[in-house]
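# nightly structure sweep
# worker-07 picked up a monomer target from the shared queue
# config: single-sequence mode, recycle default, output format = structure tokens
# input follows
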Amino acid sequence: MKKYKLVFFASLLAFSVNAQIKNQETQQVQIKGNCNSAKNNIELAGNQKRISKVEYNLASQTATISYDKTKTSQSEILKKIALAGFDNAEYLAPDEAYAKLDKECKYGREKKMPTNHQGMDHSQHNSVKTSQVNQLSHVFDSYFSLKDAFVKTNESEVSKQINNFSSSVSKVEMGKLSHESHIVWMNVLTDLETISKQISTEKNIEKQRELFAKFSEPIYKLAKVAQLDYTVYYQNCPMFNGGSNWLSKEENIKNPFYGNMMLTCGSTVEKL
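# output follows
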């Protein structure tokens, strides 16, 4: 009798959780995982109170995802799960996230894009350079505009351009990136989102500049694989915080860390 009560309670709880999700849509998807903690980690990554609920079946390596379609999407939920280290139907987990999994939780990986990535023509995935550039060009354009705002020490423009950057990141369709760019994008996405938010909320421009130095590192990693149709100059200021880097479309040095105080301080260390 006690056993039946527990089953009933669990069913009632599951129903209650799903009932709280409005505008609900439910899908089943494949997610790689092969240890008991994988279930907890996958569900923890995908669950969001009153917005999304993930129920993972370890035996079949499938998940039932229920979500409020007005507030999120299957793609957004699977992105979070990939960032937690689990390859799935849409996204490969970043190598760094996969490496953090316990030894017994590491599953066999296929180093290629998931076969049912939404909206992606896999036969052309590695050859359509134009599509990739279009996806990333707005990201780099907004980064360079942000850099110029720091060069001019224009606080209002910094605020405007960091918001533009965040918007450009949210519009990237990862399915249209090359395999290599997709992997790098997944590796740097969290840093880009986190640091851009920190710059946006920080009101002191000198502290914003310190964040911009950190911000430029994931941008550099992305620029190395983005196959942009123009030269990008990776530049260094040896005096700011013991040495800090930024990227520019111009070979001439215009230092974003000191502005007019030391406008030409620095050098180009790499051409991309």
